[in-house]
Write a structure and sequence with these properties.
With 199 residues, this protein is of the alpha+beta class. The chain contains seven helices and seven strands, in the order E-E-E-E-H-E-E-H-H-H-H-E-H-H. The strands form three sheets. The protein has a three-stranded antiparallel sheet. It binds zinc ion. The site of zinc ion has 8 residues, from loops.
Length: 199
């Protein structure tokens, strides 16, 4: 199986890895793949948990602000809707895309890939889904968003009292499960299994 190094684009032929062996790029030293036992099963479990948490993050208050007797409750979709109403539709998409739409699509793709792989059956969408996942990866900004919220909270806290809602905690838990799902999803193992089922 040949893997492209995502740092320097070198095509590397990687043999079968056993135990917790790692493969590094011979040119730049970037970690190409780690073989993990049950890595794909863990990735599927984390992806399902991430899907539930991301759905929950949409339906509850994200945070509420209280200042001089006025209270403003904000939800994630609500904040984008407000930007759209104020005439900033492109910014609404820039907000929603990397934090909700792209991560949501990635979680759905991981589940659609791993359910057939774990059952050992071929599905016609396996190859396009594997490619879609690599394409979407750089557009997801889940961790950036969580850190951004925390930084802006420090600033807002000086002006108003801020109460973090259920949705905020659901999103933080989602970020943890999302990262765990992707780090357990080994590209080499995934493509080896897809190839074995396709032939
Ligand atoms: Zn490299």
């Amino acid at each position: 199986m040949r893997l492209a190094c995502i740092e320097c684009d070198l095509l590397v032929r990687v043999g079968e890895l056993v135990g917790r062996q790692r493969a590094y790029c011979p040119r730049c030293g970037h970690l190409l793949t780690v073989s993990t036992e049950d890595g794909l099963t863990k990735a599927l479990a984390f992806a399902v948990a991430a899907a539930v948490l991301l759905a929950a993050a949409n339906f509850f208050p994200f945070l509420s602000l209280r200042a001089s007797g006025l209270e403003q409750v904000m939800t994630l979709p609500g904040s984008a809707l407000q930007l759209h109403r104020d005439g900033y539709t492109s910014i609404a998409f820039l907000v929603l895309g990397p934090i909700l739409l792209v991560p949501g699509a990635m979680v759905a793709t991981v589940v659609a890939l791993l359910v057939p792989l774990r059952r050992g059956v071929f599905a016609p969408w396996l190859v396009p889904a594997g490619r879609l996942l690599s394409f979407l990866g750089p557009w997801s900004m889940v961790e950036v968003f969580v850190i951004g919220v925390l930084v802006s909270l420090v600033k807002i806290a000086a002006m108003a009292s801020v109460v973090l809602g259920i949705s905020f905690w659901a999103y933080v838990a989602f970020a943890v499960c999302f990262t765990a799902a992707l780090s357990n999803l080994d590209r080499l193992q995934m493509w080896t299994e897809i190839e074995a089922l396709a032939s």
